[in-house]
Amino acid sequence: MLFQDDINDQTKSDALKTGATKALLINPPIYDTQYWAHWSQPHGLLKVAAWLKQIGYSHLWLIDCLATDEKRQVRYRVDRQRAVLRDDMVKTSYAYGMSLDELRAQIRRLCAEQFTPEEVWITSIMTYWWESTRDVVQIVLEELPHAQIRIGGVYPSLAPRHAEERIAALAPERIAVVQGEIYAASDLPTDLSLYDARHSFHGRVPGFALITGSRGCPFDCAYCAQLQLNANIRRVRHRSAKDVADEIEDKCRRHGVREFAFYEDNLLIVKHEFMAVMEEIITRGLRIRLFAPEGMEPRLVDDELMSLMSRAGFQKIHLALETMDEEISRGWGRKHAHFSQFERAVDVCRKHFAGGKQEGVNAFVLFGVPDEDLQAVVNTALYAAQFAGSVIPMLFTPVPGSRMFSQFQDYLLTERQWDLHQLNGKRLPFLEYNRRRYPNLKASDYLKLEALMAHLNQGKVRSQAFAFGADAPVARAFRQTLAAVE
Question: Were 454 and a residue from 75, 211, 364, 461 both cysteine, which residue would form a disulfide, CB within 3.0 to 4.6 Å?
């Protein structure tokens, strides 16, 4: 296994010796029941590309199996081998992105055009998507028998032993698992030029980009693994406002990018610096559309901030409500969060973003957690719907490296004997566990929770409207809430 200092020193040494190092970078496809591709872009891998160029790599090639089309979508195919069957719930599984046969064909075409990579860098994002990383590695081993393979990203950083045993063991002499952050790459801009015809078969630079202005968070919420991803350091690192704005402006001018999404551990935790970024964008007159799809803390919202964000180009706001039950929130380690802060934040946001009732202000609601109180989930959804324009349901995934994963590791991995791909929240890993509290709980009840939230958004989930009068735990919890209000 290689840590970031090892990989940095070794790679720099190799580049200086050869003077013309060739590397292939691959973003694997994924297997899942659902995938939101709107912001699909391997920003960590694209930062590594910028770093490799910086230290002397002269030939880089990108294969992004999840590259989106002009409608910001990826192709998908039914994956019958991985269909999800849980009680009375059936979910179709899909293979999203480039097929493995297409990937193999692209590698062969690349070699036929006299580009034979000496190294292959493969990113791996979610821990429950590890299988496609393994499949890509297998193809690379077969098609590029002399290339060294380096696997990095969230999965090997949070589950390094799993990556060693399940993937590196395929060819230990050729595969290195990179655990942790490559610091030299972190503050570099993503290299979108890899999408043009000189560096890929994609031939088209995306019209959007992901931006990371800070890394880290001082809190340790039970369900979050950011501390392990950040070497257990609570200090927040951030780039200067000018540096971030320079990256945005460069992508606008050079590639015509007009939409940007901030992906950070805690977007507003260094609020003065984020506000400075907004001021830079306004001063430079950049006509862009901004988003923060992972949400922000309600307690950090204020009128000056929202005014700046609106003027800079933010289109909508996502607030991390998660639960209005303060006892549950404290149990998750979110002592800094209080639902009254959410009400105040929504009031502020409404002044600047579509009045709050046209999806200008959105709220995340977390459910599917162990020892869940269904009444609290229903209450939170109803509460959020009073204020936000849209309630966004989030099924809980136990993430390796988080305190909640450690707490239930014996249940998940020993008692249930599940592998990482089976811990995907969409597979309901705590369904059986939560039956200890709700003996009649079924998998379809989680779909009904989603349907309730969709109903509150005046929509539908899987063409199933929420049945208010049904004899099911979620419907009963909903009626009990109404009765308490009356």
Answer: 461
- In the chain, the amino acid numbered 448 is K
Question: Is 183 contained in some domain?
Answer: yes
> What is the Cα–Cα distance from 316 to 289, expressed in whole angstroms?
10
Angle 104-68-216 from CA coordinates, rounded to 5°:
100
**Type and span of the H or E element at 145:** none
Coil, helix or strand at residue 319? strand
Q: Is 293 exposed, middle or buried (0-12, 13-18, 19+ CB in 10 A)?
A: middle
Which candidate, 79, 239, 42, places its Cα nearest to that of 155? Answer: 42
β-pairing, 237-238 vs 214-215, is antiparallel
Question: HSE (CB half, 13 Å, CA atoms) of 384?
Answer: 33
How many domains is the chain partitioned into structurally?
1
CA 245 to chain centre: 23
Is 23:57 a contact under the CB 8 Å cutoff? yes
476-483's contacts with Cβ under 8 Å and 24+ in sequence apart are 477/374, 477/375, 477/377, 477/378, 478/378, 478/382, 478/452, 480/375, 481/375, 481/378, 481/379, 481/382
For the domain that residue 12 is a member of, what is the CATH number? 3.40.50.280
The answer as to whether 115 is a domain residue is yes
**Cα torsion angle, 180, 186, 190, 195, sign:** negative
Beta bridge partners of 214: 238
Domain span holding position 47: 1-203
| Residue 317, both tokens | 């706001």
pLDDT tens for the 486 residues of the chain, in order: 555 555 655 554 454 444 448 999 999 999 999 999 999 999 999 999 999 999 999 899 999 999 999 999 999 999 988 999 999 999 999 999 999 999 999 999 999 998 999 999 999 999 999 999 999 999 999 999 999 999 999 999 999 999 999 999 999 999 999 999 999 999 999 999 999 999 999 989 999 999 999 999 999 999 999 999 988 888 899 999 999 999 999 999 999 999 999 999 999 999 999 999 999 999 999 999 999 999 999 999 999 999 999 999 999 999 988 777 777 766 766 666 666 788 899 999 988 886 444 458 899 999 999 999 888 899 889 888 888 888 999 999 999 999 999 999 999 999 999 999 999 999 999 999 999 999 999 999 999 999 888 888 864 344 444 555 566 676 676 667 655 544
Determine, yes or no, domain membership for 255.
no
Q: Which residues of 203-237 are buried (b: 16+ CB within 10 A; e: fewer)?
A: eebbebbbbbbbbbbebbbebbbbbbbbeeeeebb
Q: How far apart, in whole angstroms, are the C-alpha atoms of residue 198 and residue 210?
A: 22
Q: Which residues contact 281 (CB under 8 A, 6 or more apart)?
A: 245, 248, 288, 290, 312, 313
Residue 443 lies in a domain: no
